[in-house]
Design brief:
317 residues, alpha/beta, Rossmann fold, UDP-galactose 4-epimerase, domain 1, two-stranded parallel ribbon, globular, aldehyde dehydrogenase (NAD+) activity
Amino acid sequence: MNEQHLHVVLGAGPAGTATAAELASRGHRVRHVSRGEIPQVDDRIERLKADVSTPEGAIAATEGAAVIYHAVNVAYHLQVATLPGVTEAIIGAASAHDARLVVLDTLYPYGTADGEAITEQTPWAATSRKGAMRAQLDARYLAAHRSGEARTVLGRAADFFGPGVFNATFGGAFFPGAITGGPALAIGDITLPHSFTYIKDVARGLATLGADDGGDGEVWHLPTNPAVPTADLHRVIESITGRPLAIELITEPVPYGPFDEQFMSEFAEMFYQYQIPQNMVSAAFESTFGVRPTPMRQALEETVAWFQTALAGDAFH
């Protein structure tokens, strides 16, 4: 795609931030949009404070876009009520500008189906409120593509980890403790395989889908290493840090650290993800687009290094 075409990234969480950086590194014109202030970390990226939850706001914020990347999220307890409206606003903006729409998605629509090997052909079997909502939104995106309303592609990721990822099960409640010898959170049955997607691979995957319209109208699993037991990843991290982990294991959805009572009460219906095997397979994306996940040890080394720098800079206070 011509580098003069404008790529607009919606959402300034870890995925949106990493995607904006990835697109800029590829030489694209990038506008990064968020409801809040976006720190200035790259002069190549235009920053815009805007609310894309309304049709008017979404259309204005994406003016001139050739590709729109939807990485908007809201507080966990507001998702079911809020995300459908956000979806309609962003589809409307893509349609208004004749822009391609790249949507960041989750594994929620699969529910407990085929946890041992989740592929793009795995049935959508969600029974939770948030899983059913995500499945309905995904059906809406794909219908918008089929009808010609908006050219759309979906990229699904497993649990995030990596630089900038704080509010995740493998994030700010784990890595600081792993580095300092303090308590490190683990959730559910850590002897079972569980998929984690490196945030830089999320960004590379979304940028690839934005550059290649051959995947449009489909759901793709973004590059993710084969699942291993979470306990195996703990051993890798111990070898990186040179110190044993002080794991604090929670086996039911109770408040812990950054995950307060309100969050955990909403998260309860999704806790099954940590009580069954979950192996998200990204072979189709890897073979089609030639993009493979960062080797897990390298990804963990980079993540530990980032948290070490963040801790040294007092980013947690």
